[in-house]
Specification:
This protein has 147 residues and is mainly alpha-helical. The protein has one domain: Formiminotetrahydrofolate cyclodeaminase monomer, up-and-down helical bundle (Four Helix Bundle (Hemerythrin (Met), subunit A)). 82% of the residues lie in helices and 0% in strands. The protein is elongated. The two termini are 27 Å apart.
Amino acid sequence: MVASMSRGKKAYGQYERELSDAIGRLTQLREELKAAIDADAESYNAVMKAYKQAKTAADGDAVITAALRQATAVPLSVAERAREVAEIAKKLIPMTNPNMKSDLTTSVALARAAVEGAMANVEINLESLKDEAFVAEVRNKTGALRG
């Protein structure tokens, strides 16, 4: 909203390209994050199904591991996208109407909260995984996201 309200205004003309790029990327991120809502629900259901199947399946551990890996990938993706939202919002501060700075500050705070919430989801799933290499790989990514 802030970028859209600044784009096309004479006072911010020198930032036209950056504002347009931010609007385009934020629109894409919004759609990806909306799709992640369904993906997260599906991955949760897959984990529940895997635990039930594991009781009778010969490859029960593999079924659970595959489901938990996917259930970890979804919130990790959410965290990566939310972090990008925060970064874009911070970059918009000097090139948009200063009277809207509180909107950008709020968006950064909400994006950071989304990162932390998604990371908590990742950690819960990692605790149940026995695949140490996968866990280490994901923890490296989460460390970079928090840093």
